Amino acid sequence: MSDSDDDVPTLSAHTLAALQEFYHETRTRPDQDRMESDPFAVGAVEEDWRMSQFWYSDETAALLAEEVVREAGEGGRIACVSAPSVYQKLKQGVVDGSDRVSAFVLEYDRRFATYADDFIFYDYNEPLSLPPSVAPQSFDIVLADPPYLSEECLSKVAKTIKYLSKGKVLLCTGAIMENVAKELLDVKMCSFLPKHNRNLSNEFRCFINYPSSLLWS
């Protein structure tokens, strides 16, 4: 063993444990602080790129929330599939009529379980693996944002959408998915351009299967 090896400092097990605890706290404290200040603020739960999470801008989340409230109607039910920022905007109480609808968030990320009964665990790889309480065609509108830009992912999410929706679909995904989306869900691309808090490399669009001002806005 060389002299340099002898001089390398080592950390005790206690010190290592303390460092790991500090690292964990610095990773989790921002989410906890934001959740405590406003649990429904867009970004209250930090994006995790490992799960392909990219939150909408506050303006886009508000506009999409207004759209689904309008289309669901009074007493309507809204499913936000992999679109937690729209769900959060609906629950903030800043969108007119949001207090007269029911909204649920279907998410793989269990951090959103903090929303209690509004949270439904969802894995797009098992598109129909939903709780018995989630009845078929029980939502007046389904807003979905598949986590990945692939035909395989969209095909599976489309199965979930068809199971949940009474008819109306608002799909948010990359423009490159237009033909696949049309084939699977008979949706049209809107003129409206959704924006995210972070700039995405792929052009992002909304698609719907009902008449709306989003088509030409």
Automatic annotation (TrEMBL):
Transmembrane regions listed in the UniProt entry: none
GO molecular function annotations of the record: methyltransferase activity
Enzyme class name: transferase
PROSITE patterns: N6_MTASE (PS00092)
Pfam family, one: N6-adenineMlase
Catalytic activity: L-lysyl-[protein] + 3 S-adenosyl-L-methionine = N(6),N(6),N(6)-trimethyl-L-lysyl-[protein] + 3 S-adenosyl-L-homocysteine + 3 H(+)
Keyword Zinc listed: no
Family: Belongs to the class I-like SAM-binding methyltransferase superfamily. EFM5 family.
The protein's name in its UniProt record: EEF1A lysine methyltransferase 1
Gene assigned in the entry: EEF1AKMT1
